[in-house]
């Protein structure tokens, strides 16, 4: 008997496909179009080929911004992943403390990026900000507007405050899914707390840690709003990440061709690094 297929379901998916095409594919094609052409306005374009890509890849400005991005993401991941695991391990698993902790952990995630930047911009001011005024009163020469180190510390602490909760919630979800029998067996065997973490908790958290790692990497690597609001990319260009430099090039200088080429390179770097992280972490998981 020949099997028949009902293709009417595609009509249900068609609106979603059209929406994705309108919101993602078409803008991407527009960027690709600008990246290989030059324009002086009036909708007149001139073929440029790969000139803009070559210009960006030979630009010290691009590599400096990329280096700042990589450094920031490395610092963020080094702090937030272990800190999130530590907090999740010490959160209560039963009782009234569970909903209280979950709500407290969720609150920073509900605050929009621009509001977070505004909060820390005011918080770090030495005249009216609680953080800046307190540090100044204690004798610290803190000024995130003029000092490069202070600007970086402010952005890092701000991001840790804002996004560590995401890692905590993901890790906590992995921990509560572990059956109680595992802990009972470990207790009978006399396993130490480190052994329980190493052989029971960490393997059960590997999948959620992979998600947390990828989400935090991509978000920290694409960070824009918070540093733009707090430091504006300064002092100098010390906190000018690729996202800020891209906006300056596209809107401030109206160099649409180089900006489009830079955005494609930016996207490919994120895609490549995310694929490398995913491959390495999943392969190590399979070997274990």
Automatic annotation (TrEMBL):
It is a multi-pass membrane protein. Signal peptide: none annotated. One of its GO terms (biological process) is transmembrane transport. InterPro entries: MetI-like (IPR000515), MetI-like_sf (IPR035906), Sugar_ABC_transporter (IPR052730). It holds the Pfam family BPD_transp_1. Its main location: membrane. One of its GO terms (cellular component) is plasma membrane. It is found in: Cell membrane. Residues 66-277 form the ABC transmembrane type-1 domain. Coiled coil: none annotated. The chain crosses the membrane at residues 12-36, 70-89, 96-115, 160-178, 208-225, 256-278. It comes from the Bacteria. Keywords: Membrane, Transmembrane, Transmembrane helix, Transport. Gene3D superfamilies: MetI-like. The keyword Translocase does not apply. PROSITE patterns: ABC_TM1. Belongs to the binding-protein-dependent transport system permease family. This is Carbohydrate ABC transporter membrane protein 1 (CUT1 family). It comes from Rhizobium subbaraonis.
């Amino acid at each position: 008997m020949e099997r028949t297929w009902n293709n009417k379901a595609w009509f249900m998916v068609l609106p979603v496909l059209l929406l994705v095409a309108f919101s993602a594919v078409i803008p991407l094609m527009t960027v690709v179009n600008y990246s290989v052409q030059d324009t002086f306005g009036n909708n007149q374009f001139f073929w440029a080929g790969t000139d803009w890509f070559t210009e960006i890849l030979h630009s010290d400005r691009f590599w400096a911004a990329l280096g700042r991005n990589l450094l920031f993401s490395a610092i963020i991941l080094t702090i937030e992943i272990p800190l999130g695991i530590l907090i999740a391990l010490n959160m209560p698993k039963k009782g009234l403390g569970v909903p209280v902790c979950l709500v407290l952990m969720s609150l920073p995630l509900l605050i929009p990026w621009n509001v977070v930047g505004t909060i820390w911009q005011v918080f770090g001011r030495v005249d009216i900000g609680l953080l800046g005024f307190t540090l100044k009163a204690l004798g610290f020469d803190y000024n995130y507007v003029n000092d490069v180190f202070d600007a970086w510390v402010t952005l890092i602490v701000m991001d840790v405050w804002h996004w560590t909760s995401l890692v905590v919630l993901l890790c906590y979800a992995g921990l509560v899914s572990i059956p109680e029998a595992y802990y009972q067996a470990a207790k009978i065997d006399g396993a130490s707390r480190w052994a329980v973490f190493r052989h029971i908790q960490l393997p059960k958290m590997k999948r959620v840690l992979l998600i947390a790692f990828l989400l935090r990497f991509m978000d920290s690597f694409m960070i824009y709003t918070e540093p733009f609001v707090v430091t504006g990319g300064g002092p100098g260009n010390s906190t000018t990440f690729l996202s800020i430099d891209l906006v300056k090039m596209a809107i401030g200088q109206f160099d649409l061709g180089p900006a489009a080429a830079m955005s494609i390179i930016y996207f490919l770097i994120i895609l490549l690094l995310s694929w490398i992280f995913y491959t390495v972490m999943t392969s190590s998981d399979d070997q274990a």
